[in-house]
Amino acid sequence: MLEGEHASTEAKESHIFSEEFLLKRPLLEAITQDAPPVLLIDEIDRADEEFEAFLLEVLSDYQITIPELGTVTATSRPQVILTSNATRELSNALRRRCLYHYVNFPDETTELRIIQTRYPAASLALGWQVVRFVRSVRAEDLQKKPGIAETLDWVAALTGLGISSLQEKPETLHQTLLCLLKTREDREAIPLEVFKRLAGAAA
Question: So what's the pLDDT on residue 19?
Fold first, then answer.
């Protein structure tokens, strides 16, 4: 549309590269709010190092530099929450700007309450068996210990199959461990005989 106008290249570019055509992504949106929002950056360890370096400008100077527009200074300082699964080391510069808190697996009662909240149709007896079984699995030498999300996936599979106890159909139940164990090595670490032992102890 601008090609037909009698304007200089600089004037055309200044119009195109203006705030009118800027799509605000979450970081820019967060620092330009009137009231400080809560900004969640989930699994920062899965982002590349370039994004991590970019994030430092937000966390240290509360600003974002856009080459075509200049520097946008924060109108409010967001409360930033970063989560990480420790799939890679974060830079010391990023860690220095954070308060660290490790979230461990919940205790048995809390994990049972989570199951009951998400799957109220699951019986209390099955819920307790699942919680005890999963805690035993986490004690095994695994590459990736099952988290709450995997526990809930397993409960969904068990209730979908009409299972009311881990003592039922051990061969079938053993196949459902694909909901809990997400690597081939971890699946091989819990063969049928180990499953039967852990399920018996959980009953």
Answer: 65
